[in-house]
Amino acid sequence: MHKQFICLNGEMLPSGEPSLMHDNRAFCYGDALFETIHANGTHLQFFKDHYSRLAKGMEMLQMEKRNLPDAVMLESLLRKLLNRNHLYKGVRIRLSVFRNTGGYYTPVNNSVSWLAETTPLPADKYQLNEKGYKTGLFKEFSKKADNLANLKTSNSMLYVLAGLHRNRHGWNDCFILNTEGRIAETISSNIFILKEGILYTPSLDEGCVAGIMRKQIIRIAETEGLECRESIINEDDLLTADECFLTNAISGIRWVLAYREKRYFSKTSRMLVSNLNNEQFS
């Protein structure tokens, strides 16, 4: 097997050797943003959208952009990393941006560093799950619906606890509530339901992450003449929906078979993932 590398501030380093210090702010305070990007060959899916979301998050968190390469240069460096690691099929890239060391809760400056790492995926394209997901509800903790909720930050304890809850119940995923008791998202995905021929997904005001795949699915659905509404979704909506599926940038679409006693179809999920693959890999 080829020796693997990471990319730290543009420098290729062996992945098995230490590269970050104990006082790194991502480790100490969760003072970091990250993007997970799907790649196939050396093509990065929806990279401009990932970069735009990252830049918006950095601005919100008052991180300086001067140490982050522009979109063209960064994409080139990520492709270089894929080549260095001999990864030419389906790949998950994690790109992390963290405020540089210094200070305690309050940083001494707002300069940043960035780190990219790669993980091979089992499939080259987006592949719909053959067996539908069984899901449940995570009620122990909820997510505050504010602007920070739309970011992908390293403050992930809510999702860690939701993942442990899912495992205890033997589910494939679970729904996370906002502080108003409404459905926001799942552990690592946005949620869509189909009800009476209309596609619904929680609005960003409901506290979900501003998902890259969420954005693409809304676009593709509308191209296919399927009305999509960003709205409020309650548990009752889950129980009366015809279909339910989850989206994220790495998996694409995961269709849900069951929530409690409710069972769902997968026709819309199959149509959307087919269109998504035809668009990206044809």
Give a brief description.
This protein is 28% helix and 32% strand.
Offer a few descriptive terms.
single chain; D-amino Acid Aminotransferase, Chain A, domain 2; 7 helices; 2 domains; alpha+beta; 282 residues; six-stranded antiparallel sheet; globular; D-amino Acid Aminotransferase, Chain A, domain 1; nine-stranded mixed sheet
Structural account:
The strands form two sheets. Strands 7, 8, 9, 10, 11, 12, 13, 14 and 15 form a nine-stranded mixed beta sheet that branches. The protein has a six-stranded antiparallel beta sheet with strand order 2-1-6-5-3-4. With 282 residues, the protein is an alpha+beta fold. Strand 8 and strand 9 (183-186) form a beta hairpin. 39% of the residues are buried. The chain starts with a strand and ends with a helix. The protein has seven helices and 15 strands. It folds into two domains: 5-120, 2-Layer Sandwich (D-amino Acid Aminotransferase, Chain A, domain 1), CATH 3.30.470.10; 133-281, D-amino Acid Aminotransferase, subunit A, domain 2 (D-amino Acid Aminotransferase, Chain A, domain 2, Alpha-Beta Barrel). Helices cover 28% and strands 32% of the residues. The protein has helices at residues 25-29, 47-60, 71-84, 157-169, 212-223, 235-240, 267-281; strands spanning 5-8, 11-14, 32-40, 43-44, 90-99, 112-120, 133-143, 173-178, 183-186, 190-195, 198-202, 228-231, 243-248, 252-259, 262-263. It is globular and about 50 Å long.
